[in-house]
Specification:
Its cofactor is Mg(2+). One of its GO terms (biological process) is canonical glycolysis. This is 6-phosphofructokinase. The protein has 169 residues and is mainly α. The chain has one domain: Rossmann fold. It is 46% helix and 11% strand.
Length: 169
């Protein structure tokens, strides 16, 4: 839905594979999204672009690499979907953005145009957690598909147990 709305509004939408680690590792993880590249994924559980805990992103040096890669690619808006770690990281990244770009410009790792075109970082944070532990919402993104998978697995086990006339624990 995010990709398709972005395309509808005339934006270039990129999928960043492997989350914050993908931002640090660079442009090979930035894939231009199309309408068809997100077709058929609504019913899938998990994420199609991968997810990675990034100890490197917890350090300023990692966030500096991520900022450089985003600015070089012309990406200045992020939609971050995840739990506490993801949203805490997004908040810190937003707070540091200006100082990160200032440092990159000072080190001549960004051109003046790259700096000017990416002065501001827009972030939308969406709680995505199978734990459903966020107050203020009935169900977080991910909870429904996780529960659905659990029910499917239990149904399959019940059918197998019944056909073998056994009880499974």
């Amino acid at each position: 839905a995010i990709v398709r709305m972005g395309i509808y509004l005339g934006c270039k939408v990129y999928l960043i594979h492997e989350g914050y680690q993908g931002m640090i590792d660079g442009e090979q993880n930035f894939k231009l999204a199309t309408w068809t590249s997100v077709s058929g994924i609504v019913g899938l559980g998990g994420t199609v672009i991968g997810s990675a805990r990034s100890s490197e992103f917890r350090e300023r040096s990692g966030r500096l690499k991520a900022a450089k890669n985003l600015a070089k690619a012309g990406i200045n808006s992020l939609v971050c979907i995840g739990g506490d770690g993801t949203l805490t990281g997004a908040d810190l990244f937003k707070k540091e953005w200006k100082s990160l770009l200032d440092e990159l410009l000072e080190k001549k790792e960004l051109t003046n145009d790259e700096f000017e075109n990416n002065k501001y970082l827009n972030i939308v944070g969406i709680v995505g957690s199978i734990d459903n532990d966020f107050c203020g919402t009935d169900m977080t993104v991910g909870t429904n598909s996780a529960l659905h998978r659990i029910i499917e697995a239990i149904d399959a086990i019940v059918t197998t147990a019944f056909s073998h006339q056994r009880c499974f624990v």
